[in-house]
Design goal:
The chain has helices at residues 17-35, 39-43, 79-89; strands spanning 46-57, 68-78, 102-114, 120-132, 140-153, 156-166. The chain is an alpha+beta fold and 180 residues long. It has a six-stranded mixed beta sheet. The longest helix is centred in the first third of the chain and has 19 residues, at 17-35.
């Protein structure tokens, strides 16, 4: 499986500053909800047909391809599976997140292009997550590029697709029980 989002070019159709600012605010609001463990509210930012993907990165020579597996995924979720993960966080059997992680999302380098369908925008951003657990002094850091499709719907901006391109070939964390 290769990324369905085209590579960004300097000639990409520009969008108005107002749209860019609204989408950037949407991404910052999304990060804030995730940082505060407000996962049910976060689900409200997703379309019912959302896809949330993170393919496994491979170390390849330049001629070997994109550097991401066509067959292996760290995450491959739709709305129902994301909803189930949120519901699981609310149970006593979510040992991976009890006590909950403290996570901080840093979202930068937001680029917005007009999407192929009306109302949809192709949004690329960089994400840096810092995660601490319990009373441990060490923290875990994850960095990635995110390729999103964000649509304006009647109730506001919604995330329709996210493909996470991790910078890591080996995850620097025990699990991915959180959202990037």
């Amino acid at each position: 499986m290769t990324s369905t989002l085209p590579q960004e070019s300097s000639r990409a159709a520009s969008v108005s500053r107002d749209v860019r600012d609204e989408i950037e605010d949407f991404l910052f609001h999304e990060a804030e909800l995730l940082d505060r463990d407000e996962h049910e509210a976060w689900l409200g930012l997703l379309t019912s047909d959302v896809l949330y993907l993170a393919r496994v990165r491979q170390t390849l020579r330049r001629a070997g391809g994109s550097g991401f597996s066509d067959h292996s995924m760290h995450l491959s979720d739709n709305y129902t599976s994301l909803q189930m993960r949120v519901l699981r966080h609310q149970t006593l059997s979510d040992w991976a997140e009890d006590p909950p992680s403290r996570i901080r999302h840093f979202i930068t380098n937001v680029r917005v292009r007009q999407g192929e369908d009306s109302g949809g925008y192709q949004v690329t951003s960089n994400a840096l997550l810092v995660r601490t657990r319990a009373d441990e002094a060490k923290s875990e850091t994850i960095s990635a590029e995110r390729q999103d499709i964000i649509r304006r719907e009647e109730t506001g901006w919604k995330l329709a697709r996210r493909e996470i391109l991790l910078d890591h070939t080996t995850l620097p964390t025990h699990n991915l029980s959180f959202w990037i």
